[in-house]
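Below is a filled-in request sheet from our internal design queue. Each sheet records the structural input a requester submitted and the sequence that came back. We keep these sheets so that new team members can see what a complete request looks like end to end.

REQUESTER: design group, bay 2
PRIORITY: normal
MODE: inverse folding
CHAIN LENGTH: 279
BACKBONE (tokenized):
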């Protein structure tokens, strides 16, 4: 049995004891009308499953309509959106991507948001359940940043007399956002630098590589040099010292990691630049 009601904005359908509502400006709306005309219960049930999936992948300020992603009603574009659509089509868990997008759009700079995509597209970004991003930082064997700047205010983190910051495990490193260079055309400038594992390893030379995490809202710029292998942030948190490249296969480095023990709102460190690879 099929029962339905058409309003100015939607179509309400009951088929075989199951009910659902379809918004008028969707492809499913027209498909459902055609199925109703043909008394096609099977097609209507298939449409209901699509509508249910759309509901599942719509939460708070984020929604998916006609394979488009909207945040606060505005259509989004870029690599992360393509990934979200991929998750949607394959019915993958999407909480991590959702949280990433929410944090990214808390970033006060549109330029920073757009530049973040360059880094994330190039590096195939890895994210945690809380939406924070995993990255790497090359430092001295004692954990201090390779370079320092005594003219930069460090809001969180231990600093030596040369302005170098100690990247000890669990440390939250932060500097004022307005003291981070936001011009991507300047290769080596002021800011906290995070990069790919290969970039961090090369930059550290005889030092060590730290696994770190940062929030998308704290991304300031992605320098155009180094093939977008690094970015500048105003805050991050040190997780641990990389023992070897084998750790790259751990849960932290999967495209989506579901370690529920991860802290949600901590992260950060700073650094200056006297040489071209400063990070």
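RETURNED SEQUENCE:
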């Amino acid at each position: 049995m099929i029962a339905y009601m058409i309003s100015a904005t939607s179509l309400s359908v009951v088929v075989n004891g199951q009910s659902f509502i379809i918004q008028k400006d969707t492809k499913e709306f027209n498909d459902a009308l055609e199925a109703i005309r043909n008394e096609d219960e099977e097609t209507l049930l298939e449409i209901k499953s699509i509508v249910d999936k759309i509901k599942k992948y719509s939460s708070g300020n984020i929604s998916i309509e006609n394979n488009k992603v909207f945040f606060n009603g505005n259509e989004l574009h870029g690599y992360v959106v393509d990934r979200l659509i991929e998750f949607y089509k394959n019915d993958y868990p999407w909480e991590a991507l959702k949280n990433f997008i929410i944090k990214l759009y808390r970033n006060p700079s549109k330029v920073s948001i757009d530049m973040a995509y360059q880094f994330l597209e190039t590096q195939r970004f890895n994210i945690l359940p809380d939406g924070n991003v995993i990255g790497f930082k090359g430092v001295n064997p004692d954990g201090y940043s390779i370079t320092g700047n005594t003219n930069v205010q460090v809001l969180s983190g231990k600093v030596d007399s040369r302005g170098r910051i100690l990247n000890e495990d669990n440390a939250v490193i932060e500097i004022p956002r307005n003291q981070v260079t936001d011009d991507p055309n300047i290769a080596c400038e002021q800011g906290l630098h995070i990069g790919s594992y290969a970039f961090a390893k090369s930059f550290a030379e005889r030092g060590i590589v730290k696994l770190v995490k940062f929030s998308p809202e704290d991304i300031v710029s992605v320098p155009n040099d180094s093939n977008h292998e690094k970015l500048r942030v105003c805050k991050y948190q040190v997780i641990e010292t990389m023992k070897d490249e084998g750790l790259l296969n751990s849960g932290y480095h999967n495209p989506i990691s579901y370690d529920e023990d991860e802290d949600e709102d901590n992260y950060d460190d700073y650094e200056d630049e006297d040489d071209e690879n400063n990070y």
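SHEET NOTES:
- The helical segments are 27-37, 41-56, 79-90, 95-104, 110-123, 197-204.
- The chain has six helices and 13 strands.
FILED BY: M.R.
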